[in-house]
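Dear colleague,

Following up on yesterday's call, I've attached the two folding results inline so they're easy to grep. Please treat them as preliminary; we haven't cross-checked anything against experimental data yet. The first protein's sequence and structure tokens come first.
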Amino acid sequence: MSEPYTTSKRPPYGIIAILLAGAFVSILNSTLLNVALPSMMTDLEVGPTTIQWLATGYMLVNGILIPTTAYLIQKFSVRHLFITAMLLFTIGTFAASTADSFALLLTGRMIQASGSAVMMPLLMNVLLTSFPIEKRGGAMGILGLVMIFAPAVGPTLSGWIVEHYHWRTLFYMILPFALIVLVLAFFKLKDTKEKVQLKMDVLSLIFSSIGFGSLLYGFSSAGDKGWGDPIVYSTLIVGTISLILFILRQFKLESPFLDFRVYQYPMFALSSAISIVLNMAMFSAMILMPIYLQQLRGISPLDSGLLMLPGAIIMGIMSPITGKLFDKYGARTLAVIGLIITVITTYYFSKLSLTTSYSTLLVMYSVRMLGMSMVMMPVMTNGLNQLPARLNPHGTAMNSTLSQVSGAIGSAILVTVMTSRTKNHAEELMNTAMSKLTEQQSAEVLEGLQNKVMVDATINGINDSFFVSVLIAGLALVLAFFIKRVTQEAPSKSV
């Protein structure tokens, strides 16, 4: 299909380095804006629902385009695909940096997303075809560093920038790096590719876009609007029907748009199940911790980010190490140990209070990240190792798509649990407190009591949500015991 990246000769480290740099910049960019949204809201004079589209729109474009990457990787060369993706990302970054209105800023973000959607599946496919199975762990460990470290360090970096500079600096900072990667790709990526007669199935594209787009929007809206909102359940129904039609159509096509036959391979199916469950559990800390730290404890965004930074550094250090350990011992041992650590630390997070010290939170969060660093990439790599080379693009596209969807589902479930349990706790605590009040006590005392009750109820709601995460992570732990080491011939020597 393309100029070979052989598994017998020296892997193309220069090409991989360029792809890694592009992936790092795009993933870092996707996590930078969350802390800056309040400043943007004030500056652009829009409300919370409107400004949230900067995150929602980015996610939707990713969710719609990522399933197409299996087709794109087979159809086009690494050089053409990566340069096009990086060019789109750079144009989007420039448009966002100069935006003087919300509409232009949103347009820039969505153009960015159209480029970044291709980066990770493309990089994973190059790694799979560049290294033999017995050396893939180390290679995928480096990829894990990018996947984990970039989003983990993003909030800290963003918090510091927003505290000291204008929010546009977030885009000014990304733009030169994007340009450098684009120039390097133009001059250094030299692969050629034979012409592939692969026809785009328009109906599959329509079903895929409506299906994944609607599901992502429905689940991401559920936490805010509630499951009973007509927009939420209607988009979920439309998404489910479209996704079923999409899957059925793939089995009828000679060259599927996204080949669901990857699930005929048991270790890939198991790795997908574990990744989905773990992704859902992982979002508990990402969503609940900022609420607890900033809204309830009054800790600044920068200090909140700094609390999470040691965990990001640990994951960055551990990723290549975990990759080497995977090559030596396989995925099951690492996954079981990592998930035990994750379950225990998540349980401790379900016992938060207003007096939990900053140092305790920092240590617990860092140890939790240590556990997760031992699970995600080894499990994913073990599953991909079982696929034949022709299914590599479909496997990587499937993993990236499910990561988006499971993250949205996890967020929706955990926010829903927190909201509903907070309401229940507030009613219980208020009834108890009111029974102890006398008629002579002033309205001032009553108002203070209501504020205290809401704080206590919210903490209890967050704790309940963390406990649900414990159960979800526990399910992943059970599944991890069924992992078997995959032994298979090395894939074909092309991308």
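Below is the second protein, in the same order (sequence, then structure):
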Amino acid sequence: MRLAILGTRGIPACYGGFETFAEELSVRLVQQGGEVTVYCEAGAGSAAETYRGVHLVHIKAPRLGPLTTIIFDVLCLWHARKAFDVVYMLGYGASIFCFLPRLWGSTVWINMDGVEWARSKWGPMAKLWFRLMEALAMWTPDRVITDAQGILRHLQSRHARIPPASVIPYGATVVKEAPDARMLQEWQLMPGRYYLVVCRLEPENSVREIVKGYLQSGSAHPLVVVGNIAPATDHVKVLLQLKNERVRFIGPVYDRRMLQALRYHALGYFHGHTVGGTNPSLLEALGCGNLIIAHDNIFNREVAGEAATYFHRHQDIAQRIRALESSSPEQRDRLKTLAQERIQTYYSWEYVTDTYKGLVDAPLSKGHSYKPVMVNSARNI
């Protein structure tokens, strides 16, 4: 079976969740005997043709602002139209063109990555485009794949027709050995003596609420916010006004080892995402055994279950922090164990790869669905 993965900047992963997903899945499928190609953005100079057994195709797209990504996806779809049994597009921003490989007999999948049109970073025209692309994604592929049951339910509530659908999550790894704590010296931090947020600084990620709740808690441990502060949007400017000696905005951290060290050694981890399904950042926090305080919505509950506590308002965050800091070592260890068991049971890369392999090998008409155990939150730490 020849599989092509489109919709990413390419591998090895240096950017976001889709790139990490493409790398982890493609390499593992190749190790199981598959033939996988990942489409990559062409940069200046030469580029490798393979990576750990995965074929790489580099496509250059003209730089036309917001249209660049759509044009890149279309060029990839056109290039892949004849050569593969399955063409897997990550994201639905170019779903209107995903019929192209089907004209040449390829099976097309689309990964419905969250409720993209609800994100505040998009203007009215972009939101309208994503609404249209979501609707067309119900017609142009042979199958849609969502990373959470909540996303599938969202599609079912909005569209009268849905193609064959599979729910397959992203994956993560369990961190079994503590990263070198000396890496924290970059930010003058001590293990177990700071709180952490890792996200894009956008309104739907609840950073403002997290900061307000943290400040209200009176905690003596600093809050570290990892996220790009450039360009300084109106929302970022509002956030930076909350900056003080306790609230530290340290910008993006691209080094995987250093980011893992930041996560692993945090006293607590905040996850404020309100839009989307299985968020890679939340999975990585679970894999590190973090004590997680997450926004209370169906997506986060589906992923974290009892391994997190939850908040609706910033006042809830202050209460969660006080409960965490007054908890016993045994209570904290229980939550850490639950977090890592959650990854091992439902979100290991091995599980994700085996599920995709089963889908590739199954007849087109056969449905396939991942069903995590839904449990109540641990309200008290």
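For the second protein, one point worth flagging: Confidence is low (pLDDT under 50) at residues 364-380.

Best wishes,
A.L.
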